[in-house]
Design a protein that fits this description.
mainly alpha
Length: about 110
């Protein structure tokens, strides 16, 4: 073996080492796929689970005006007997006026929430 052949073998070995190092560097340089990382995300398998995962948890009544009439009737039935007992001399129309004033301030009124 001549010195030229030895030098050529060393250069080939060094070239192979550099290729291996370059491949390792390229593999290390690839960033992590964040689309696959699911640390704090809820996973949903069904529609119900997806709705639950997307909901904010605040069940705010978006249309309380739809329930006002039924709520007032329940309030009136519960309170009218008490008002009649407290004020036996008043007419029904006067008692209903008192009821409406109470209803405006009542926590049972859906519009007050």
């Amino acid at each position: 073996m001549t010195q030229a052949e030895v030098r050529q073998k060393r250069e080939e070995e060094e070239a192979k080492r550099k290729e291996v190092q370059n491949k390792e560097e390229k593999e290390e340089a690839i960033p992590e796929n964040v689309n696959r990382v699911m640390t704090d995300i809820d996973v949903a398998q069904t529609v119900e689970q997806a709705i639950a995962a997307l909901s904010t948890g605040d069940d705010v009544d978006m249309h309380p005006e739809k329930r006002v009439k039924a709520a007032y009737k329940a309030f009136e039935e519960a309170r009218i007997q008490q008002l009649r007992a407290e004020n036996p001399s008043l007419r029904l129309s006067q008692i209903r006026q008192m009821l409406r004033k109470e209803w405006q301030k009542s926590p049972l009124n859906p519009l007050n929430k």
